[in-house]
Amino acid sequence: MALIVQKYGGSSVADAESIKRVAKRIVDTRRAGHDVVVAVSAMGDTTDELLDLANEVAPIPAPRELDMLLSSGERISMALLAMAIHSMGFEARSFTGSQAGMITDSQHGAARIVDVTPVRLREALDEGAIVIVAGFQGFNRDTRDITTLGRGGSDTTAVALAAALDADVCEIYSDVDGIFTADPRVIPKAQKLDHVSSEEMLELAANGAKVLYIRAVEYARRHGVLIHARSTFSSAEGTYVLGEGMKNPREAEGAVMEEPIVAGVATDFSQAKITVAGVPDVPGKAAEIFKIVAKSGANVDMIVQNVSATGRTDISFTVPKADAAGALKALAGEQTEVGFQNLIHDDQIGKLSVVGAGMRTHSGVSATLFEALSAGGINIEMISTSEIRISVVLRDTDLTEAARTVHTAYGLDGDAEATVHAGTGR
Ligand code: ASP
Ligand code: MG
């Protein structure tokens, strides 16, 4: 008998029918003899709808009240799910984040979990109940207020519960079958991975893969939680995300697996490029520029500086599209102080990343990428690398074709087309 934490995303509990389907799945797990703790997201697009409502009554909703409002979405789904389970003859008890002991810092809208004290959950489990916890929310001890963890935060709730309760596995259910070698909506020949290391998963998530949230993967990595990403719509096994020293539970004892060099290809259409042109080529200018950008709240990703022949240089960087306007405005305000000549905004870029832990020990991985792009006649605008990733910025109109070409070049194409349940990936 195991303790299993299951997380169901908004698309898995979008309506009454889906809630009943999820209830059945939970009851099946219980029938198999396991203790079950469930973290659940708000139904369908509830969170977006609540956000819209808030914006209709106030241009900038008060953060404390916004968290009160948004946290109610998960209270609806948790109670309905518990009712559905009751009606199947099983005992279930729902808990808000604060009842579940999800203690966070006081940052409304982006709170971090600092402690989990699942006393009531343990009691309920000991009494034989199935435990349902509202995802995405917590409680701050100093302010005594309700907080939320940021969009997609229910993944983190699930992983934090799994860590605190020392669960055997944290199953994250969505409308996709697991982690793929690429987004199957972009690359139909993408294959489901049997497992992926958490460091590869972090790079994939940071570079456009949306199946799992970065914070949840980081939390799992730090606390040694085994994640199993799988689909609500099938009983097939999904993908295990393995932390340091963890073994794929599906592998035979003692089997040594040959790891592929490249785990996957990620695509990201969400970035924009800003070029600060004609920057005086003297020490301190990059510091000035990126201090201004940081103060605007923009999150910088790639940076490239050109060589200068004339005593002036161009510095280009990428930021999320939503951050670009703020960064441009901040920079324009300091143009004379910094002494650059002009600003260029380009939001028609796409980013392609190749991720694989095997890059540490194998050479030629980047050559394969550049050859594939060159054969496809695709122009590269920026390049950046980490130990286990190579990323390039391209025209956004080239990204899909480039990703397919590169996916083939690394031998990642599967024989059959991946099944895509017409969902959102959550
Ligand atoms: N309901 C929240 C959101 O839509 C949290 C989640 O789904 O994980 O962002
Ligand atoms: Mg949601």
TrEMBL record:
Pfam families: AA_kinase, ACT_9. Its EC number is 2.7.2.4. One of its GO terms (cellular component) is cytosol. It catalyses: L-aspartate + ATP = 4-phospho-L-aspartate + ADP. Residues 274-357 form the ACT domain. Pathway: Amino-acid biosynthesis; L-lysine biosynthesis via DAP pathway; (S)-tetrahydrodipicolinate from L-aspartate: step 1/4; Amino-acid biosynthesis; L-methionine biosynthesis via de novo pathway; L-homoserine from L-aspartate: step 1/3; Amino-acid biosynthesis; L-threonine biosynthesis; L-threonine from L-aspartate: step 1/5. Keywords: Amino-acid biosynthesis, ATP-binding, Diaminopimelate biosynthesis, Kinase, Lysine biosynthesis, Nucleotide-binding, Transferase. One of its GO terms (molecular function) is aspartate kinase activity. Substrate binds at T47, E74. PANTHER family: ASPARTATE KINASE (PTHR21499), ASPARTOKINASE (PTHR21499:SF3). This is Aspartokinase. It comes from Microbacterium maritypicum (Microbacterium liquefaciens). The lineage of its organism: Bacteria, Bacillati, Actinomycetota, Actinomycetes, Micrococcales.
